[in-house]
Amino acid sequence: MRIDRKAPSRAPRPSRRALLAGAGIFSLGFHIPFLARAATRDGAPAAPEVNAWVVVKPDETVVIRVARSEMGQGTLTGLAQLVAEELDCDWARVTTEYPSPGQNLARKRVWGDYSTGGSRGIRDSHEYVRKGGAAARAMLVAAAAKGWGVPAAECRTERGTITHAASGRSTTYGAVAGEAATIEPPKDVALKDPRDWTIAGKPLKRLDTLPKLDGSQVYGIDLKLPGLLNAAIRDCPVTGGGVKSFEAAAVTGMPGVKRVVQVGDSAVAVVADTFWRAKTALDALPIVWDEGPNAKVSSESIAAVLREGLDAEQAFVGNRAGDVAGALKGAAKVVEAVYGVPFQNHATMEPMNATALWTPERCEVWTPTQNGEAALAATADAAGLPATSCEVYKIHLGGGFGRRGATHDWVRQAVLIAREMPGTPVKLIWTREEDMTHGRYHPVTQCRMRAALDTEGNLTGLHMRISGQSILASVAPQRMVEGRDPVTFQGLNPGGPEAAIGYTIPNILVDHAMRNPHILPGFWRGVNLNPNAIYLECFMDELAHATGQDPLAFRLKLMGNHPKHRAVLEAVAERIGWDRKPPEGVFRGICQTMGFGSYVAGAAEVSVSDAGELKIHRIVAATDPGHAVNPQQIDAQVAGSFVYGLSAALYGACTVKDGRIEQTNFDSYPVMRMDAMPAVETILMPSGGFWGGVGEPTIAVAAPAVLNAVFAATGKRVRHLPLKDTDLRRA
């Protein structure tokens, strides 16, 4: 179906800091079997807040607690819709709040996982948050029924009202909340069939839009506290290097400067009364670095290491079937190509920042984070205090894209600086240059593909050798599987619900020669699905043209066992008009993949002038996420994902010289501008039966759809990104 961007909805202005305080406020919870109940006071329950997800106030305001982070993707609204749906409350009265990770720890992780990444905000928590709403509704109904002396089964709910039709009596959630708080939550609750949804599944307006428009939304970089000082920091420009010396006396007399401190082994910070004064002093501070052996590394030396990996004897296997070597040896035709993607920066609009307040007894941090629990762990470690003596207050993120998830280096720095100023809140803000040159970059990889074709042009064998960086080896080595990084094979797995290949190839081998340069990798939005989709889908296009076949028809022959992959591919082909001649001078490309539990496909229309100037006219994207919680948000996410995916494909490259990242700001690391953005058409086709993500999957089809269209327009294969480095004048 085509998403209606103009669908009406109701949404109040949300309260960011609704607190449990005052008589008559009722906090409802439900039991998650794998989670323990909250602590007790004096041997009695600590109030009816156990597993608290829903708060009903006497004025009928419904506060829904959301543990996941909001960074523009709409998770906050989507999760609230799921809870409100099962609660049967009045959506016009819904607001939200973040429970803190410290509260979660104190209450034995009652809210579960705080991590927000991998498009998992809804798909990994939909069931238990829905149960929270359903349990709350059951308790409210039980309270009303008890007061009336009638069976609860005879009562009905609608928009925050409970009715007993037989007696004509009705009441509101707020009126019975106090009594409901005394009722034991049900152990089992039935969830609604998605076909009966009236709040979830609807294109409701986001709950966080108005504060962003009227300027009342506070981001971490805006935060002000009494007595606040500001810090600017500079880390060694070469990863692995450190501080040799610095001359604090050269800047301590400058206006507003309070302290110059070394932060860890590799950074120096200046604390002042304003950020500008801190930055100005830092710019004037003489620092001598010990850059170490990594200072000799360049993009060229890294590329050489990766090229060596393409021919290495040892590699970790991600997908294997049949006899690839035999298929290649006996092939009527062998096609080979090498592709590559560079380092890429998250480049969030809001640079890394955190405010920390440290005393010998307690440490508190206010920061934008994709994982409050990980931020709390980093805080406790840097503070030298137990986690129970620390707290992190999550703030809406001015962009995350994976940068604010697994690694919290900026939080650690803020706490270390605050330890030098006990009892004084200190806000650390990274400059844009610090943010651009000390990120956690999308891993650099190359991929050589060799395909075996028979005399009829059928694909009989495929060997994909990926050479390059492992994210998990750096970020989460405990998740490695016998030395292998499973994330490397996103979109190329032999099956399963997460990121399976969409083709049946009788002989296939996908392997990874791990080569880890010193530039640190991180979970960059879309992760390894992005390059893998480029590698496979552009090569599929090459094979189709090498055998004189239509690129769509060539793919469909291999997709008989992959109906969901095929469905989205056929949907974009139909919408783009694949079987019809495009306008004069316009050329098309097509692709598909599966990632983050969803099936996606893309088709693009482009033109290339005689001077080699590319114009992307139109992109069509189809997504099957299983269930669609908010179609309007999915539409926005798809459009946003193409901004991100096309920025990377067209411009995004971080190069290394003398061991350091060369790009320091948006002048050297450009992103997509509005005048270059194509029209985006979204096809949402949820087939039910599973829950997939929507924030990241379609990023992966942006580049291959355009690159395949560029070949159709110019006869040139762009195998190494970014595209800006290729002369697109017709071959």
From TrEMBL:
One Pfam family this sequence matches: MoCoBD_1
Signal peptide, first to last residue: none
InterPro entries given in the database record: Ald_Oxase/Xan_DH_a/b (IPR000674), AldOxase/xan_DH_MoCoBD1 (IPR008274), AldOxase/xan_DH_MoCoBD2 (IPR046867), AldOxase/xan_DH_Mopterin-bd_sf (IPR037165), N-heterocyclic_Hydroxylase (IPR052516), OxRdtase_Mopterin-bd_su_IorB (IPR012368)
All copies of domain Aldehyde oxidase/xanthine dehydrogenase a/b hammerhead, residue ranges: 214-293
SUPFAM superfamilies: Molybdenum cofactor-binding domain (SSF56003)
A molecular function (GO) term: oxidoreductase activity
Top-level taxon of the source organism: Bacteria
Record-given protein name: Isoquinoline 1-oxidoreductase subunit beta
Originating species: Methylobacterium hispanicum
